Amino acid sequence: MTAPRRGGGFVRKATGKVRRASQSPDEDLWASVQMARHAERPYTLDYITRLCSDFEEVHGDRLYGDDAALVAGFGRYHDRPTAFIGQQKGRDTNERTFRNFGMAGPEGYRKAMRVMEIANRLGMPVVTLIDTPGAFPGASAEERGQGGAISRSIQMMWRLDVPTVAVVIGEGSSGGALGLGVADRVLMLENSTYAVISPEGASAILWRDASKARQAAQAFKPTAANCYRWGVVDAVVPEPEGGAHTDHDQAAGILDQYLFRTLTELGAIPASERRRARRERFRRLGPLRDPEGGIGMATGRETPPPG
Amino acid sequence: MSRVGRNIHVSVDRLRQLAHRDARPRKIKADAGTCPKCDSHFSADEMQRNLRVCTACGHHFPVSARERLEQLGAPGGYEEMWPDLRAADPLQFTDLKPYTERIAEAEKATGMSEAIVCADLEVRHAPAVAAVMDFAFMGGSMGAVVGEKFARACDRAAQRGVPLIVVAASGGARMQEGTLALMQMAKTVIALDSLAAAQVPVIVVLAHPTTGGVWASFASLGDVTYAEPGALIAFSGPRVIEETTREVLPADFGRAERQLENGQVDAVVDRRLLAERIGRVLHILRRPDDDGPTSTQAPALQWAQGGAQWMGDAVQALPRKVMDRIRPGSPDGEDAG
């Protein structure tokens, strides 16, 4: 796979004028990481309040407690009922602590599953917004089954009969992100990142040195354009010039267009076909070498999507 | 098996350990045959005979995937499925070394092609498909090959209508494959549902360690889940937690025994009893007709039919005296028709 350094023509064509500040790919990738975590970047509730004419947030997993790091509820989206679920970060110190920096625990994922089950029963689509440095690493979370909560959330998302769309709006790191990421369509905002672990985590584990985050980012190449090329995401959603943080309304407006069109497309597909396609979508991800031909490297994509 | 010989061997080592506990610096570098807990030494064939469990203190040493398969029910060998799948390097990843170099080293060191071995297996006469991970191959990490082989093993078990046995031993997703490694979590969880469709169970054994993306995907979705003594089972490892939250963790944090208390596993099973235990649960879960995936009858209907037949037979077998009492209106025992 010969990877072009920049993320294909689509990203730039779509916005017309997005520019990347620096020339070196290293700097570029680090800039993406910084941009995805920008303190002024719109968070999950910023999008939900702009996308929905009304939103009823629900609380608690009915088992143990409520997790403020993950918000879930029912919104009126284009005059239709729609479930929205996403990790929520905080803007000032107090709010950051309250939201646990967007790192959800098992209660968060169980709350998400509760809302998904209701949405499935009532026949409304599920939209997830992913923005997390990872699921919360804490002894209490482990005791209450962090691993099982994430795996069951993945399982539930795959089993849903209703249309599902996941959108990576900021940082998507680790299983904490994927817990909300198994959808019919996965969209990704232009300046967001989607990676197996945060650059800091990777740096500590692979380089055994917490200060190699830049190198880790460079090695992971977790940009929207790359994720699109790998087939991990289905479309890259452009951001306002300078990034989503410059204009929340416009960022939400662009996302609205993509989201509405995607949900409309999905609504036209029969549920059984949608599930089959969802299975296929995740089943073929992951290039490997198979001497018998098999799936090989066929998943890589070089061409931009239509439209 | 010389019981005497074994006892002598053990007691000498334990005495030595007790006598020199803290004063004696460890002279012998811990090799595969030296117990890190009690310093007992074992020769290579002893290790294998003991299923890599220290006979003195019960410490469980790591087991390679191949040896595990032999322990569980294929002492005469087995045929590995899909051994030719190899990792690609989609990111052209380099940390301290290039990924391709790391793979080559792992292949050379372990003689394996990837961190998982799949094979058909019979555990105590119960047929199954096994997917066994090997921590020695790049920390048992899950990349595209592990995900694909696991998914194929699920399909195969569903096709054959036999249970899947998973032995997990993994640090999590393979970082060198980046975001695509993360996607294997979704792929494996989805693949497990072929088993649900075929109504066959999945038995998961958690060996030391099972962490990260493997614990947060298929490893935590067993219908029956066993853990080996002392195995670390966690989404975030102790080091990550201590660094992130500054918590001071207890020594047994995330260990199998603790996770049993937390309700995260069904039992902690000594490796020497593992094959027996798996065989037993497979026999319990075997369906009444055992005709595999071709069965079109719902289990409830099978129950109803089997139950009716059994009751009919049982009634026939009752003593005459009892029959008389339970058949109203026929005091002479004649069939009232």
Number of domains of chain A: 1
Name the CATH architecture of the largest domain in chain B: Alpha-Beta Complex
Mean pLDDT of chain A: 89
- Determine the structural class of chain B based on helices, strands and strand pairing: alpha/beta
Q: What is the fold's blueprint, element by element?
A:
The complex is a heterodimer of chains A (307) and B (337).
Chain A: H1 8-15, H2 25-36, H3 44-51, E1 54-58, E2 70-77, E3 80-87, H4 93-98, H5 106-122, E4 126-132, H6 139-143, H7 146-159, E5 164-173, H8 174-178, E6 185-189, E7 193-195, H9 199-206, H10 213-220, H11 224-230, E8 235-237, H12 248-267, H13 271-283, E9 288-289
Parallel strand pairs in A: 3-4, 4-5, 5-6, 5-7, 6-8
Antiparallel strand pairs in A: 1-2, 2-3
Helix pairs in contact in A: 2-10, 3-12, 5-7, 9-10
Chain B: H1 3-19, H2 44-49, H3 65-72, E1 80-81, E2 86-87, H4 99-110, E3 116-123, E4 126-133, H5 144-160, E5 164-170, H6 178-197, E6 202-211, H7 212-215, E7 224-227, E8 233-234, H8 238-245, H9 256-261, E9 267-268, H10 274-285, H11 299-316, H12 320-326
Parallel strand pairs in B: 4-5, 5-6, 6-7, 6-8, 7-9
Antiparallel strand pairs in B: 1-3, 3-4
Structural summary, described in words:
- The complex is a heterodimer of chains A (307) and B (337).
- Chain A is α/β, with parallel strands linked by helices and 307 residues long.
- Chain A has helices spanning 8-15, 25-36, 44-51, 93-98, 106-122, 139-143, 146-159, 174-178, 199-206, 213-220, 224-230, 248-267, 271-283, and strands at residues 54-58, 70-77, 80-87, 126-132, 164-173, 185-189, 193-195, 235-237, 288-289.
- Chain A has one domain: 2-enoyl-CoA Hydratase, Chain A, domain 1.
- In chain A, strands 1, 2, 3, 4, 5, 6, 7 and 8 form an eight-stranded mixed sheet that branches.
- Residues 1-23, 296-300 and 302-307 of chain A have low confidence and may be disordered.
- With 337 residues, chain B is an alpha/beta fold.
- Chain B folds into three domains: 1-61, no CATH class; 62-285, 2-enoyl-CoA Hydratase, Chain A, domain 1 (Alpha-Beta Complex); 297-337, no CATH class.
- In chain B, strands 1, 3, 4, 5, 6, 7, 8 and 9 form an eight-stranded mixed sheet that branches.
- In chain B, α7 (212-215) links the parallel β6 and β7 (224-227).
- The model of chain B has no long low-confidence stretch (mean pLDDT 87).
- The chains are: A alpha/beta (307), B alpha/beta (337).
- Chains A and B meet through α6, α7, α8, α9 and α10 of A and β2, α5, α6, α7 and β8 of B.
- β9 (288-289) of chain A pairs antiparallel with β2 of chain B, so a sheet runs across the interface.
